[in-house]
Amino acid sequence: MLNLFARSRPSSYESTALYDQNTFYAALDRDLSHCQSELVIESPFITASRMNVLLPIFEKMRRRNVRISINTRNPLEHDGDYIRQAQESIILLQNMGVKVLYTTKHHRKLVIVDRRISYEGSLNILSFTDSCEIMRRIVSDVIANDLYNYLGLRRYNKEMKNERL
Hints:
Blueprint: E1 15-20, H1 24-34, E2 38-42, H2 48-63, E3 67-72, H3 81-95, E4 99-102, E5 110-113, E6 117-121, E7 134-139, H4 141-150, H5 153-164
Parallel strand pairs: 2-3, 3-4
Antiparallel strand pairs: 1-7, 2-5, 5-6, 6-7
């Protein structure tokens, strides 16, 4: 059973910074352009307008053989046109080799870059349009790996490897 009140091992971080809705994507773009091996994004919503900006970046990353995993809500949990936008975006992502996972009632907004840089906050990374948001960027392999493990991605990746054997 997961103990939400358990403390992680003490760790220091190299740096931390706060971003708002106006400054977040420039910081994220810099990190994505330097990403060498793996990107994880958790964002409950996906819209066509935001994906039009992010897809070319993801395509460049995939050409560099960066593994990309996205965890989001099942499109059928959305309303109206958001269902279609999410479905179409997910198809484009999957066609370029992005792993797309679904979590029911998903609401986390996270990014992990190369298990070294993480972002946490309130901004829906794959759908943001116009609201007041905050994201914290933390450079720490300890914190990024703690977050990665908390999300169960290490276990998921082992299961996927075993299924392919």
